[in-house]
Amino acid sequence: MEPINLFGNTVSDLENVMLEIGEKPYRARQLFKWFYKLGENEFERMTDLSRDLRQRLSGRFSFIGMTPEETVVSSDGSEKFLYRLGDGALIESVLLKDGDKRTVCVSSQAGCPLGCTFCATGRMGFKRNLSTAEIVGQLIYLRRRDGENAFGNIVFMGMGEPLLNFDNLVRTVEIISSGIGLSISARKVTVSTVGIVPEIIRLADTRLKVNLAISLHAANDAKRRKIIPVAKKYPLDKLTEAARYFAKVRKNRITFEYVLIGDFNDSDEDIKELSRLVGGIPCKINILSYNPVEGLPYRRPTEDEIDRFAQKLYPHAPAVTVRKSRGLDIDGACGQLAGKYKN
């Protein structure tokens, strides 16, 4: 009989496993710590468990994570990892490096159902939600490879819409933020959404202290609907209402992501509309350059155009930053993940 893989199990899951085999629930916390904090997957080495329990666990269970099929390295040091899942689906994650700062960009779905017109992932169509094991596996691989300093920040900005995989997102964050898990503060975790209004409110009402980033990309409904189909379902008045609610409940500002597309959303009128839209919302605006995707008609703006937009916006917005694209030469920048081999 094939051993049951416990990879991706939370403390609560492991408590149920312990009860099923006649053990005290507190053993779950011991297992959880060995698995996630100490990086041990051999039961025989878990020395605070009795020999009898170790033998029984070895016979029935395993703890097997994920290993990428391909790793490509950017000229800026960033790395992109291609994983093949059990059913053959391909996903990617990216480790972004900026000096000593290391941020891992995690995927939550294989493909994406939202079809944003400027995004390579959206062109793939939707395969399925990732399991908790498949999400956290992208992190555990790096921890085992590079140790505790593998990354300091985690962003759910990879393939897919994380709020459409809500339950597994929450389970993953529980593993990430647990003191006996990966021990990464939830305040170092950012969940990015294109604007799924009910789930923004639902996330605000959880106990998870994650950051929220909303992919805005246009400041009026007509223009936003041209590039983000789900904007027809969740117009900007409802989206900004949810943003205000999140900021109020969490007592923390949110981030609006704004991908600048040449000759589309970069005019003085766009700046005025964006300024009005975010008025009164505790927030910062991240300006990103559109990253080219083969076959799409959009123009990447010049550095001067980006700087001009940011400088004109800054006096009218609470905080404005320009985020430099990383991993561009390996198709690892925002909007470029497509689950395909580099060569």
The topology string of helices and strands comes to EHHHEEEEEEHEHEHEHEHHEHEHE
**Which runs of at least 5 residues are low in confidence (pLDDT < 50)?**
none
CATH topology heading of the largest domain: TIM Barrel
Amino- and carboxy-terminal Cα gap: 38 Å
Number of helices: 11
Mean pLDDT: 92
Notes on the protein architecture:
- The protein contains eleven helices and 14 strands.
- It is an alpha/beta fold and 343 residues long.
- The protein folds into two domains: 59 residues, DNA polymerase, domain 1 (Orthogonal Bundle); 261 residues, Aldolase class I (TIM Barrel).
- β10, α7 and β11 form a beta-alpha-beta unit.
- α1 packs across α2, α5 packs parallel to α6 and α7 packs parallel to α9.
- The longest helix is centred in the middle third of the chain and has 15 residues.
- The mean pLDDT is 92.
Summarize the structure.
The protein has 343 residues and is of the alpha/beta class.
